[in-house]
Design goal:
Elements: E1 14-19, E2 24-26, E3 34-40, E4 43-48, E5 54-60, E6 65-66, E7 79-82, E8 86-92, H1 93-102, H2 104-128, H3 133-143, H4 150-156, H5 161-173, E9 177-181, E10 184-187
Antiparallel strand pairs: 1-8, 2-7, 3-6, 3-8, 4-5, 4-7, 9-10
Protein name: Crp/Fnr family transcriptional regulator
Pfam family, one: cNMP_binding
InterPro entries: cNMP-bd_dom (IPR000595), Env_Response_Regulators (IPR050397)
Length: about 190
């Protein structure tokens, strides 16, 4: 089920969307009529540069919202693409704006949620600045956890899957990280 503050919106304003890897949640220049909350999986926000290079401008995993700027825009400014199977909630833009105008708990809870996402993104950028792969992986496990596969985790922290896997192997051997399940790791 969807969490606060969206759980207080009318049921008609919410719709679950299942995505296969590679599916688009929305495309750049589509009419911006909703924001989205990710329940499971991961979605990347992608733009294409003038040279034609695809650039990931944001990543959204379980519990994150995306396309919040759509509340104040006519069109989406990027593509949203599932990088693994995902389940998302489509949240009607007009319902969110009405709840914001009404004030109260909805507005405060949404602002707190968005501020948490800003803090999380700043931490992720700080972690990406760490040069050593082992130190970066350990800092990410401590600060962010491993929300998905090793491949998704590596992409989240700006490493290749191979470099991330080697760092995890060395960290497990050094006793600084535990392998908690197949492909799943946690800091000790």
């Amino acid at each position: 089920m969807i969490g606060p503050p969206f759980d207080s919106l009318p049921e008609a304003a919410l719709r679950r969307v299942a995505l296969a890897q590679g599916d688009r949640l929305f495309a750049e220049a589509d009419r911006a009529d909703a924001i989205f909350a990710i329940e499971t999986g991961s979605v990347h926000l992608v733009r294409v540069t003038v040279e034609g290079q695809r650039v990931v401008i944001a990543r959204a995993g379980p519990g994150a919202t995306l396309a919040e700027a759509a509340l104040f825009a006519d069109r989406y400014h990027c593509d949203a693409v599932a990088i693994e199977p995902a389940m998302a909630w489509r949240i009607d833009k007009s319902a969110v704006l009405a709840a914001l105008r009404a004030g109260g708990d909805f507005a405060e809870t949404l602002c707190a949620h968005l501020a948490g996402q800003v803090r999380q993104e700043r931490l992720r950028r700080e972690i990406i600045a760490i040069r050593s792969a082992e130190d970066r992986v350990l800092a990410a496990l401590v600060g962010l956890g491993q929300p998905g596969t090793v491949t998704a985790f590596a992409a989240e922290i700006g490493l290749t899957q191979e470099a991330c896997a080697r760092a995890l192997t060395r960290l497990v051997a050094a006793g600084r990280v535990s392998k908690v399940a197949r492909g799943r790791y946690a800091a000790r």
